[in-house]
């Protein structure tokens, strides 16, 4: 851990005017409320929205097409 860098950054932040420190805090502690890709995938999987695909026939196999 680079403690001297952290100390230097801390000192610089302390020298900032109040408004600039507040802006920095907003940017540092930003929490996105957007769902992650994993959360979207889990939602789709658990919702049953694509359950109808289980009843569809398998149209393709590993033998179809040409090897890449």
Largest sheet: none
**Roughly what percent helix?**
40-55%
Strand content: under 5%
User: What is the CA–CA distance across the termini?
Assistant: 47 Å
Shape: elongated
**Total beta-strand segments:** 0
The overall average pLDDT, rounded, is: 89
Per DSSP, the total helix count is: 3
Radius of gyration: 26 Å
Kindly name the structural category.
Answer: mainly alpha
How do the helices and strands follow one another from N- to C-terminus? HHH
Low-confidence stretches: none
Describe the structure.
The chain has three helices and no strands. It has 68 residues and is mainly α. It has a domain of 43 residues.
In short:
The chain is an all-alpha fold.
Secondary-structure topology with pairs:
Elements: H1 3-15, H2 18-28, H3 37-47
Q: What characteristics describe this protein?
A:
mainly alpha; 0% strand; 3 helices; 68 residues
């Amino acid at each position: 851990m680079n403690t001297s860098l952290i100390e230097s950054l801390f000192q610089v932040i302390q020298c900032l005017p109040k408004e600039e420190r507040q802006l920095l805090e907003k940017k540092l502690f930003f929490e996105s409320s957007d769902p992650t890709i994993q959360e979207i995938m889990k939602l789709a999987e658990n919702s049953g929205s694509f359950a109808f695909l289980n009843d569809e026939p398998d149209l393709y196999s590993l033998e179809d097409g040409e090897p890449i």
